[in-house]
Write a structure and sequence with these properties.
heterodimer, A: Cyclin A, domain 1, 5-stranded antiparallel beta sheet, 8 helices, globular, B: mainly alpha, 4 strands
Amino acid sequence: MNGVHDMGGMHGMGPIDAERDEPAFHAEWERRTLAILFASGFLGKWNGDIRRHAFEQMPPAEYLATSYYEHWLWGLEKLLVDNGILTREEIAARLAGRPVSLAQPPAGLRVLEASEVAKFVQNRKGARMDDAVPARFKAGDRVLARNANPVGHTRLPRYARGRRGVIDRDHGVFVFPDAMAAEKRREPRHCYSVRFDARELWGPEAPARYVIYIDLFEPYLEPA
Amino acid sequence: MNHDHDDHDHGHVDAGPPLSDPQLRVKALESLLTDKGLIDPAALDRLIDTYETKVGPRNGARVVARAWVDPVYRQRLLADASAAIAELGYMGREGQDMVVLENTPKVHNLVVCTLCSCYPWPVLGLPPVWYKAAPYRSRAVIDPRGVLSEFGLKVANDVEVRVWDSTAELRYLVLPERPAGTVGMSEEELATLVTRDSMIGVGKVAPPNPGPRS
């Protein structure tokens, strides 16, 4: 979706303001948010691409005004409610300190136990797929990133759409995020590292001597 | 979780400042999920402990130091980063498919995730706030030299800057150049020099001391 999260190339966001020696967490609620988000994902009702798409749907003014853990908290609430694990009424009642009778969650949820956390963290099975899918492109091919503007989840950033680049390498076959988010479907697609000259992305006035590599899935690309 | 309140018990214990909105919201979610038996508090504690103390940039620093002292490891790292990093025991969520980017005198690499916050957790831990925030995410791809300046790093005009936008599930680790003044240092000593920022690409590894070069 063309959300405000897709911010490559935007101006006016202010100084980077890096905090020196910052801690991993700035407040206890951030720790709990991270842990509950992971444990809730483990329940099995959504995948990582659906999760990212949830964060993307945060109202833009709120997204820009809040910290990253607040994005996670907003997305977590949405995911829990959308998937019938909690209801808005339960959350409101608990916030107000009112008693509420709890709705039955969906069946078949898996609870992450402490003894399984190490295995969960060290999970080596990522999004790569074993399917032998023919590759449309190879290193050195000139490609055009499509001008596609899906309303759902995509990983083709706006600043690359309609722009020409060169395949630097084929990373191999991975789960295509657009299909995984939209339909929970594991569609195997080649993912390429595509090199773009800065002037191709930003115009002839862009500074020299820099290039941008973007990881793009085959459906985002056409031969150029 | 017990939500009974004794309203007449005021005065004995200071309740502290009112909880902020996110604190209240997280507490509500946690208590509801616990009441429904869907989360295990011990698992939550273990998750937090892992990401707060067990993974962090010291892991990546060891990978870098190994590559500096062992040219054969360095080649393996550049050819198949996932396997080479796994040799040192660093593998897992948000780092299953790694790519290592070699800095040279003529090439400087910089990693960003413009769309969210993708970052190689097993070797660098959780990303810093600035990496996930709008200023860095928006500027890294359009003004990388300006971003590096803001971090106090000046890259010469004849050096090619390569910005890598982590838009898919590949996770990137920069292999910074080994600084001068480190001849004869052990791998362990070298690892202490490697900063998190140098492995993202917003910094370089400084020489160990400003004395005469060896």
